[in-house]
Amino acid sequence: MNNKHRVSPRPAANPITERLVSLDALRGFDMFWIMGAVGGEAILHKITKHLEAAHLQETWYGRAVEIAVYQLTHVEWNGFRAYDLIFPLFLFVAGVAMPYSIGWRLKTGDSKRKIALKVIRRGLLLVLLGLIYNGLLSIGFTHQLRWGSVLGRIGLAYMFGGLIYLVTDVRGQALAVAVLLIGYWGAMLYVPVPEYGAGVLEDGKTLADFIDQKLMPGTLYRHHRQQGAESIPDHDPEGLLSTIPAIGTVLLGALAGTWLRSREQSGNRKTAGLILAGLLALVLGWAWSGFQLNPSNESSLTTSPSFVSQLAFPINKNLWSSSFVLWTAGWSLLLLAAFYQVIDIWRIRGWAFFFVVIGANSIVVYMAKRFIDFEKIGAFIVSPGPMTIHPVLTPIVGLGLAWGGLYVMYRKKWFIRI
């Protein structure tokens, strides 16, 4: 690959202030899968349909794509698939960056008060962008507006995680994670919900749903839907209470970032530490789930009399359960270890440039898919081609256009920092 298309090596003289290339690449890798109709998920779905139309789904590569597509769907309730990792991985990466960004500001003489105000401003701005993404500019602050959002959760989790990071050391941050996760577990299992009681973790019937119904504005949080013969409240996966354990996700990332930023350990030892921590987090998350990664439709802890089941908190993205935090942190640590070792230790970087460009402007990537239809533009460009190729070519061409715009921003150093 031509050198001008490679990620140029960063100076190694000052590892404390160096921005990890692996971190930008991992963030970009994460965002690649959710770039709307031109992201990795959409491309794989189009390939699957093309293979089915060509009667190739029974080939080995057809089955491989089918398995990948299955993993790129969310679990309906309890359980885990690879697609459920995308959101927590982004929050985890935001936490990893804290010791570098906040640590650098402290090193250059900024006061904690000044940094705290910046963290709060950034968090609230992300909440505002989340509302805009949900249609604020078109429907305004009306009863139809959904207040919970992905960007809103990122903003609140980053804000509170950043403030905790500012006022605590490593032990304090680890203690904060334990308090957040155990406290959320205790509240969800043992605080009774009117009409349903305590420990019921069914869609629309949890303590998190009850709090959203009481505190969140808008008709979404008052609406009931019919489930069989029962009318149950709507559920918002980015509601208020479930943001609390998401702060723990950010802080676990901050702890990993502190480990990577330390001067005492070699690069290989840092990678080994990340791997060990990742495996430990996976074991703890699995144990907290009651040793059931994909339970069979058991939503309520009251369905089993065993001691383990009574204490278990199923892995559940919708609830952002404590076991989900640990399980996803484990996978995030292992991914970070792999990217860090290959990109920053072995300095094999050419392949990562594609993802670095995406990761350098991740907020732009997320907002752009809401307002720009790259797939439609791609369809217009490939329209003269053979019809059977259209479903595959359209998102790939759209992805190329989106990436090209991000590349221009990268080369001109237009980084949208909130």
Give a verbal description of the structure:
Helices cover 60% and strands 2% of the residues. The protein is mainly α and 418 residues long. The chain has a domain at 93-349. A two-stranded antiparallel sheet has the order 1-2.
What is the strand and helix layout of this fold?
Blueprint: H1 21-32, H2 40-53, H3 60-71, H4 86-107, H5 112-133, H6 136-139, H7 150-167, H8 170-190, H9 207-215, E1 224-227, E2 230-233, H10 243-261, H11 267-288, H12 307-311, H13 322-345, H14 353-359, H15 362-371, H16 374-382, H17 390-411
Summarize the structure.
This protein has 418 residues and is mostly helical. It has helices at residues 21-32, 40-53, 60-71, 86-107, 112-133, 136-139, 150-167, 170-190, 207-215, 243-261, 267-288, 307-311, 322-345, 353-359, 362-371, 374-382, 390-411, and strands spanning 224-227, 230-233.
Please tag this protein with its features.
418 residues; mainly alpha; two-stranded antiparallel sheet; 60% helix; disordered N terminus
